[in-house]
């Protein structure tokens, strides 16, 4: 079937890893399994308009962010198109207009690659579905996650919620290195509506791109131990999610965050991506937890910002603490209140 032109729109969230993906093999295959909370409010909306073109010899597209043309994004998307072409051959037959916007400020230090790449992958999979006819929902989501992975590894965990696993793990038979899958086991109600307040400590350009970062794990002296540890931590989390042991949750999640940074500090070249305020915040969280018995904890991405995680029933108490003690360490006092979400949707 051929379609002359049309347009599709998808909205897709960001996600925050609990067991981190850090290190990959060829073709965006993760060196270890990871699991993440899908976010609710941090998301990207992308409209993909397409029109048939005559020649099929090159990719043709324009990118707009918040209505402004952004040629700076083209190389990344060109690379993405090259990687996915063999799986969605129709891409060379169309000119695309990619119009995208984020709910969080661009260059806020929050990576838009997970939400952005998953939204774009979903749009492309929708177009493919239009061209080839009906496919079932499971196939659709897997294919979109597969394509998203080729854009940015962690993006393959943004399509569904509230927990997504990516990368083979022996206890999770549905898990795959090729796409994310919805966490298949029981999750204790203590994790329902879990909160994530993102403290924007440093909004500057990323010091280390994730491509460079993943490559640092090649020939890294501790890489093999780290990859083993991720499997062990994911096993431990399966039990935690079932039983609702929040103290054990805290141990695993904080250790994962610090290990991610430890990997960067012990690679060659080496990097410190935390800022003094990152450490101030971590210390204050530890003191607060000790003094109040709160189940608050932190996690980090490959940057200085801090994700503060806590159960919904602690919203009021932790909310006050964040406002009174932590916001002072944010750049321009900026932070984003988010919580666990349920994945992407077509608009
Ligand atoms: O998806 P990438 O290649 O940008 O890698 C993201 C890696 C971390 O955010 C640091 C960890 C993760 O699992 O999301």
Structure characterization notes:
Its EC number is 4.1.1.33. This is diphosphomevalonate decarboxylase. Belongs to the diphosphomevalonate decarboxylase family. The chain has 347 residues and is α+β, with helices and mostly antiparallel strands. The protein has one domain: Ribosomal Protein S5, domain 2 (2-Layer Sandwich). It is 35% helix and 24% strand. The protein contains eight helices and 14 strands. The protein has helices at residues 74-84, 113-132, 137-151, 210-215, 223-243, 246-265, 276-292, 315-326; strands at 5-19, 24-25, 29-30, 34-52, 60-65, 68-69, 94-102, 163-166, 180-182, 195-199, 297-300, 306-310, 335-339, 345-346. Strands 1, 4, 5, 6, 7, 8, 9 and 14 form an eight-stranded mixed β-sheet that branches. Strands 11-12-10-13 form a four-stranded antiparallel β-sheet. Strands 2-3 form a two-stranded antiparallel sheet. A hairpin with a 2-residue loop joins strand 5 and strand 6. Helix 2 crosses helix 3 and helix 5 (223-243) runs antiparallel to helix 6 (246-265). The longest helix has 21 residues, at 223-243. It is globular, with a radius of gyration of 20 Å. It starts with a strand and ends with a strand. The mean pLDDT is 95. The structure holds (3R)-3-hydroxy-3-methyl-5-(phosphonooxy)pentanoic acid. (3R)-3-hydroxy-3-methyl-5-(phosphonooxy)pentanoic acid is lined by residues 17, 20-22, 34, 113, 152-154, 210, 260, 301-302.
């Amino acid at each position: 079937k051929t379609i002359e032109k049309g347009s599709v729109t998808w909205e897709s969230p960001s996600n925050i890893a609990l067991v981190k993906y850090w290190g990959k093999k060829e073709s965006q295959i993760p060196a270890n399994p990871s699991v993440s909370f899908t976010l609710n409010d941090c998301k990207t909306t992308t409209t993909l308009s397409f029109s048939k073109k005559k020649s099929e010899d090159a990719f043709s597209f324009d990118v707009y962010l918040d209505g402004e043309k952004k040629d700076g994004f083209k190389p990344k998307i060109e690379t993405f198109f090259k990687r996915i072409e063999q799986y969605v051959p129709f891409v060379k037959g169309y000119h695309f207009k990619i119009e995208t916007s984020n709910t969080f400020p661009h260059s806020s230090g929050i990576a838009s690659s997970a939400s952005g790449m998953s939204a774009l992958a979903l749009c492309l999979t929708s177009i493919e579905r239009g061209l080839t006819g009906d496919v079932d929902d499971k196939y659709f989501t897997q294919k979109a996650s597969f394509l998203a992975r080729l854009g940015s590894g962690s993006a393959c965990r943004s399509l569904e919620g509230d927990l997504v696993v990516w990368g083979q793990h022996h206890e999770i038979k549905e898990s795959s290195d090729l796409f994310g899958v919805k966490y298949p086991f029981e999750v204790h109600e203590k994790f329902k509506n879990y909160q994530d307040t993102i403290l924007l400590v440093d909004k500057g350009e990323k010091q280390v791109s994730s491509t460079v970062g993943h490559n640092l794990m090649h020939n890294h002296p501790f890489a093999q131990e780290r990859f083993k540890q991720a499997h062990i931590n994911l096993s431990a989390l399966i039990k935690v999610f079932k039983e609702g042991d929040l103290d054990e949750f805290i141990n695993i999640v904080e250790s994962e965050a610090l290990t991610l940074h430890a990997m960067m500090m012990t690679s060659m070249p080496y990097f410190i991506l935390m800022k003094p305020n990152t450490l101030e915040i971590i210390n204050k969280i530890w003191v607060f937890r000790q003094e109040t018995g709160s189940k608050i904890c932190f996690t980090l991405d490959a940057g200085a910002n801090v994700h503060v995680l806590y159960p919904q029933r602690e919203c009021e108490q932790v909310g006050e603490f964040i406002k009174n003690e932590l916001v002072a360490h944010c750049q321009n006092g900026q932070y984003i209140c988010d919580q666990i979400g349920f994945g992407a949707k077509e608009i």
